Amino acid sequence: MEGTRAPLRLLAALIVGALVFGVVPGGPPEPARAQTTASDQRLHQARKELKHTRQRVRRQNERLRSLQKDMDRLATRISKNRSALDRAKVRAEKLKRQIARARAHLADLEARLAERAREAYIAGPGTPLMYLLTASSAADAASRIMLLDEMNRRDAVLADQVSLAKADLDYRQEALGRARFARRMLALTLKQDQKDLRAAMAHARAIWHELKAHREAILAKISRLHPFGVCPVDGPVAVADDFGIWVHHTKKEGGDHIHQGNDMMAATGTPIVAPFDGLAVVATNKIGGLAVKVYGRFGYVYNAHLSLFGQLGQVTKGTVIGYVGATGNAGGPHDHFEWHPNDGPAVDPHPFLMQVC
Hints:
The protein is an alpha+beta fold and 357 residues long. It has helices at 2-20, 31-123, 127-133, 138-225, 350-356; strands at 238-239, 246-247, 257-258, 262-265, 271-273, 278-282, 290-296, 299-309, 313-315, 320-324, 334-341. The relative contact order is 0.08.
């Protein structure tokens, strides 16, 4: 008999141990644990994808910063070249005025020299000699010699002035040519820099839009994985996992319908807060009683059966928007909470509420 009891005691101990630890050898896994494991794997995979996306965003940000330096350098050079181009234009205009005056001066000198040559031609080659021979005295002859010397000196000075005026005109014309060439080079450089800047800005815009798209993708992914920053009911609360159940109500109470949210049961007056930044607006109706919607970046939440309103308008995460009550068709104090991602149909908020409540 004792030999039979020992194996029975051992078998009983094994069964009790299996029950305590929630495992029966050879039995099927618990559905809740399997579901949790699959959810954790999806969350892990999503976080891994987000990590890779953030790394790509950082690399693109580095490229954008480098590109920004190039654009700043080009913008500075364009500004300086525009200033240099304006100065070159002013200098060219000044040289044009100087050349016009030099030409007028040269024309006057050449006209005077031509007049002297014409007078000498009319007088003939023997005129100076006859002028000396017809002197009435030695003093008169000396005086006439001095006059002829002065006339010859003045003719030589006039000829030198003509030569200098020509040289000055040539110099200024060459300076104008150099100024025009420099201006053309500046204009070409400016045009190329403007072209490069347009290309760099187009590239920067493309990177910026890509970064924005990545950022939106990251935020959207986060909103799908963890849309709520805080628990919507700020106090002791019991969250019913009752999305999609059939609810019976009289026609006066809205009739039979499928439950579109989770009932968060708490004491009357418990604060209800915004789960994210957004816009809180009144959504009161006959069935839901006093109600508030909070519109965020990735969707909105609907809170019904409130006893009082809190702060409305622009709110931040954690702002009190109302208080738990039993208005409308409520059977007791609770917050009927719905989650509408992308302002579309309601989805089950329970897994997300479990992350924050």
